[in-house]
Amino acid sequence: MSAAVGAAGCAPQGGVRDDGTAPTLSAPSSAVPLWPGYTPPFLPAATKPPSSKRYLPVKNVQVPPRGLAALSAKTLLEHDPNVPEAVHKVVSTCTAGGCPLRDAVRRDLTGDGRAEMVVAVDLPEFERTLLQVYSAAPGRTVRLVLIYWGPLGLTGDTFGRDLLITATGNDGRFTTRFRWNGDVMAAVTPEGAADPPRPADGGITPGTGPSTDTRTTP
After folding, report:
1. Alpha-carbon span 114 to 126, nearest angstrom
2. DSSP 3-state of 69
3. Which of 3, 19, 23, 35 has the most CB atoms lying inside 10 A of its own CB?
């Protein structure tokens, strides 16, 4: 009898048991298009990236109290020494009805709670699209954190704080993923490491067409 009672005392309790508050579930991140209504005009080929040089600071432009939202993409491009003179000319002379400059997109890509400005200008005469990302730096200066030359008609998404740039060429469709590394938006390799910055002018010089290089992956 005592053995039977002891065995019964070790048996697990039945019924419903309260294990406490259930963990909070969050929806997974999803890609958010930068230009949801944009359709590429055509899809030229892409080749290897050009050589590198340093980003130069944007001249004579200060961040207003409202942040980059108070600045226009045209103003930044016109004062950006990283932009070739041929692009300056296109941007400064374009009109509202025929400007190749897309609407600026503002997303927080650095995680500091302030939105960066993503700017893209389509250049059919060079068969290129120039995409740049500007950030507000300490001292109310505007800092360039990404330059990307790609095939005409490239587009992009944000995935969390990552920037995904997608284009299509003769080699097929390719996407380059950029992530803030504390200094610039750097290309993320399949292993998760970030390539060093490699900005360039895309081979565009005044009075000339594009070189064989069509994209830059800082």
Report:
1. 33
2. helix
3. 35
